Amino acid sequence: MRCYIAGAGDFVGRQLPGPEDYIIAADGGFSKLTALGITPDLVVGDFDSLGTVPDHPNILHSPVEKDDTDMMLAVRQGLARGYKSFIIDGGLDGRPDHTLANIQILTYISRSGARGVLLGRDMCITAVTNGSIVFKPGASGRISVFSITGNAGGVTLTGLKYPLENAVLTSDYPLGISNEFTGVTSTVSVLSGTVVVMWTGDPGVLEDH
Q1: In the CATH scheme, what is the homologous superfamily, with its name and number, of domain 3-121?
Q2: What residues form DSSP beta bridges with 198?
Q3: Mean pLDDT within 13-20
Q4: Spatial distance between the Cα atoms of 199 and 114, rounded to a whole number of angstroms
Q5: pLDDT tens-digit profile of 54-86?
Q6: How far apart are CA 88 and CA 92, in angstroms?
Q7: C-alpha angle with apex 138: 152 to 181, nearest 5 degrees?
Q8: Pick the CATH number of 127-202 from 3.40.50.800, 3.40.50.300, 3.90.1150.10, 3.40.50.10240
Q9: φ, ψ for residue 108 (rounded to 5)?
Q10: CA 183, 100, 13, 7: dihedral to nearest 10 degrees?
């Protein structure tokens, strides 16, 4: 079961929630979902983006002046309910500061023992901490891997055009930019630290683990 979060940014609708998903609307994400006839299970936020507190039976209303973003509030709620898989739409392709904040949230999700995927119009993003992800055969397009928290050690890339074995990625040198899928099963692994993985194409190319 997944936690599906809709944010107030550019909602792309590449992957809509299923009947088993727990759906959270973060502030303006409420209008994005209801426009599609989707009723969230929970609505969180300060509602500065939405402009009004929606009529919903399950609302977590936060003050405007707070440390957590609305998206972070939504993620905390999902983690508190035990979810280990997150799909986040409406978190990319808008304000760059919010995009960077949402990439940091992916790191928080990963370090909490879960996995989150941010959906954009042309790209998906996830984070991996002390572990690995596997892409299914047939994946195509570009893939880039970055260290986001200092050095990431033991980084290994297999099945890609430019393989890497037990390398160190640093946060000040983009060694992992613009790799390519080759159509075979491919993996991104890191032994110590966190890497952010960005790829073009379908979010469904990730294997479930």
Answers
A1: Thiamin pyrophosphokinase, catalytic domain (3.40.50.10240)
A2: 125, 144
A3: 92
A4: 19
A5: 989 999 888 777 878 999 999 999 999 999 999
A6: 9
A7: 40
A8: 3.40.50.10240
A9: -60, -45
A10: 150
Label residue 208 by pLDDT band (50, 70, 90).
low
CB of 41 closer than 8 Å to CB of 152: no
Q: Quick one: which of 15, 5, 4, 38 has its CA closest to 121? A: 15
The separation between CA 25 and the C-alpha centre of its own chain, rounded to angstroms, equals 15
Sequence-distant (6+) residues with CB within 8 A of 89 are 4, 5, 6, 7, 11, 12, 13, 14, 15, 29, 32, 119
Query: 27 with 48: CB under 8 angstroms?
Result: yes
| Mean pLDDT, residues 7-16 taken together | 91
Phi, psi (deg, nearest 5) at residue 114: -125, 180
Maximum Cα interatomic distance, the chain, rounded to a whole number of Å: 53
Contacts of 62 (CB under 8 A, 6+ apart): 44, 45, 46, 68, 70, 73
Looking at per-residue pLDDT, the higher value among 47 and 160 belongs to: 160
Which residues have CB under 8 Å from 129's CB, separation 6+?
A: 107, 110, 111, 190, 193, 194
Per-residue pLDDT reduced to its tens digit, 169-207: 999 999 999 999 999 999 999 999 999 999 998 887 887
